[in-house]
Amino acid sequence: VIAELLDSLTHVFVDSVRHTFYPVPQEAIGVGSAFEGWSPRDWDGVYRVLVSLNPPPGHAFHLELNSAGQVAARTFSVRVELVCTSKEEQLGEKPLCLLHHSQKELRRKQKCSLLETLCSGSYLDVEKTSHWFFQLVRSSWLHVPQWHSWHSMFQPCRRSCRLQLSKGRKSLEVEMLFGVRQGDSDIFVVSQPTEAQNCGSSIFVSSQPTKANRTASTAWPETYAVAEAKFFRHIARQLPCESLHLKCLQLFTCILRGTGFSSPTWKTAVMHVLTTVPLPRWHRSAFARRLWDIMAYLDRCLQLTRLEHFVLGNERFPAEISLPPAMRGVEPPNLFEALA
Asked: What are phi and psi of 119, to 5 degrees?
């Protein structure tokens, strides 16, 4: 239901910004446990999607690393640069060029560059973008075919947009985040801080940023959520029982609640075991054995006080999932560094 709804919204988004200098929303990508096929016992019931933003005509996005910091908890700034469009043609006529047309002509045609609307200085502002994105979602809703079937409530947040849908006894809550893709890879910088910055996962958390993030309106955290979601789909196509690994993960996150092991820890352990235990062995009759493999793997990590990040620097990470070249060669961050 959510995938069909967001597909309809995306088409309306593109039409709405077609002749503007606002970012161009791309197809929404479902992330987190709900879309990966498992959910921990304490799942908050919110379906989270990431909408990638492309630069509008006459603009380019450049990602700049804010600080060295922890490799698995990096933030970036999105610098916006004006580029010449004088040589381009649209339906036989040349588009306005923000570099070469006069300010008088631009004002006459009510054309403002992205730098004048959603930026702080030369950098894309998360909170300004969130306000614009909320208005875009709300104004687009009445133009999607599903609008008459659902009662909708929109909730603006400082770094995301929440959409509550209800129909009879059925209700859904969607949190729409937005971000910028790193090159052609499956790694993004995103509006909403993620649990990756706290405990080594890329599942999105509450829409309310932490105190440390309240003043950094131009800070965009790096997320690996899309790459991890693609990994789960990649693995499911090769397993004899495509859901066995998900049942293992769900079981551990339920029965060991309150033991000090978070859902992200179990998720990381299960992903590592999926790349070490041959995939043909993941059949239903081996369920207990695979549970033991996961437990033994985590026990080994505790003995060594080292649990490596699954995406960063992982030599076994599938080559079919696109990562920035530098990301494959780094030293994998230790998610158990605090224990060490």
From this structure: -115, 155
Residue 43 CA: distances (Å) to CA of 47, 245, 276? 10, 18, 28
- 295 & 250 share domain: yes
Domain-embedded: residue 276: yes
Range of the domain at 288: 238-327
What are 142-156's pLDDT values in tens digits? 888 877 888 889 988
Output the CA angle 160-166-168, nearest 5 degrees.
Answer: 170
Considering the domain architecture, whether residues 26 and 163 belong to the same structural domain is answered as yes
Asked if 48 and 173 sit in the same domain, the reply is yes
Number of domains in the chain: 2
pLDDT for 206 beyond 50 = no
Taking the CA atoms of residue 228, residue 230, residue 231 and residue 232 in that order, the dihedral angle to the nearest 10 degrees is: 90
Q: Where are the alpha helices (DSSP H) in 29-172?
A: 33-36, 103-108, 114-117, 126-141
pLDDT range class, residue 261, cuts 50, 70, 90: confident
Nearest by Cα to 269 from 288, 241, 245: 245
Model confidence at 94: pLDDT above 90: no
* CATH code of 220's domain: 3.30.460.90
Average per-residue pLDDT for the chain: 84
3-state secondary structure 14-37: HHHHCCCCCCEEEEEEEECHHHHC
In a domain, 335, yes or no: no
pLDDT tens column, 37-47? 998 877 888 99
CA–CA distances in Å: residue 136 to residues 17, 25, 82, 253: 9, 10, 23, 37
Q: Same domain for 72 and 182? A: yes
Provide the pLDDT for residue 72. 63
Amino acid code (one letter) for 235: I
pLDDT at 259: 81
